[in-house]
Amino acid sequence: MKTQKTHIALMLFLLTIVSWQTTWAWQQKSLFETGRRLINIAASNNTEEILNLIDPKIDIDTKASILESFIQVKEGLFNTIGKNNLELFNVVKQNKFTYFILTYNNKFLFIRSKTNDKNLIVGNFALIDSKITQQLELGRKIYKMKCYSCHGKYGKGMIGPNLADFHWKYVKSDEDLINIIKNGKKGTVMIPYKSYLKPEEIEAVTMYIKVLQGKELPNAKKPEGDEIKVPFVIFKN
Ligand code: HEC
Predict the structure, then answer these.
(1) Predicted TM-score (pTM) of this structure
(2) Total domains, the chain
(3) Which residues have C-beta atoms less than 6 Å from ligand 1?
(4) pLDDT per residue over 188-207, tens digit each?
(5) Do 174 and 115 share a structural domain?
(6) DSSP letter string over 65-88?
(7) Which of 89, 112, 149, 179 has the fewest CB atoms within 10 Å around its CB?
């Protein structure tokens, strides 16, 4: 009797999972989930599964074109790097585009597309080859050496404030961000880094902090200061 009940409970549980999966396309949790699915599909052999991430309401020609662009991106990806070590670093929306920022072996790359308010894909994919990728690689190194000790892993905040949460005590623009890194904040342990870093290193670490915005970070320090809704300029289209 007891085991029968457990069986039924288990079946109900499995059914819930199956129905959840089939309606998945309509109930996405976040853009991050879309991003993670995207790279899983890119790394698998089931390319056509990308159709589950596309808004079902768009016309068949557009869907076909998105699928084709995805196949091209996939080929581009795996001609240059291995299949297994891709990770989603963050997702950034800018100028009507959505950029999926991926990392592999401490390097970066971007897949650009368009997403709707349900976080479903509505535009073609493109692999973006940008000089920002090299800047970010340098930025990550500088961050680890000079900033990590106070601002924590991926800017989640420690002695210094959280740098990844769209909230700022002193920053309202791109200029403010680079200026506080250059000049520091008098009377605090945030020293002026222009004495210790080259201009291109300051630019690189500034860019790295820009792409941290909105990154999912467990146990992050709570936000301080004002929320800045407008994203920083990262990609110039
Ligand atoms: C010794 C600790 C320490 C180090 C190292 C450090 N910071 Fe800071 N940083 C702070 C503190 C503390 C504040 C907040 C100052 C205040 O509240 O007045 C701050 C503030 C900031 C701010 C402004 C945040 C805001 O909310 O407006 C930015 C941006 C920043 N730091 C970036 C960096 C970068 C980039 C590096 C590495 C190049 C770095 N910091 C290294 C301690 C540090």
Answers:
(1) 0.87
(2) 2
(3) 146-147, 149-151, 159-161, 163, 168-171, 177, 180-181, 185, 188-190, 193, 205, 209, 224-225
(4) 999 999 999 999 999 999 99
(5) no
(6) HHHHHHHHHHHHHHHHS-SS--EE
(7) 149
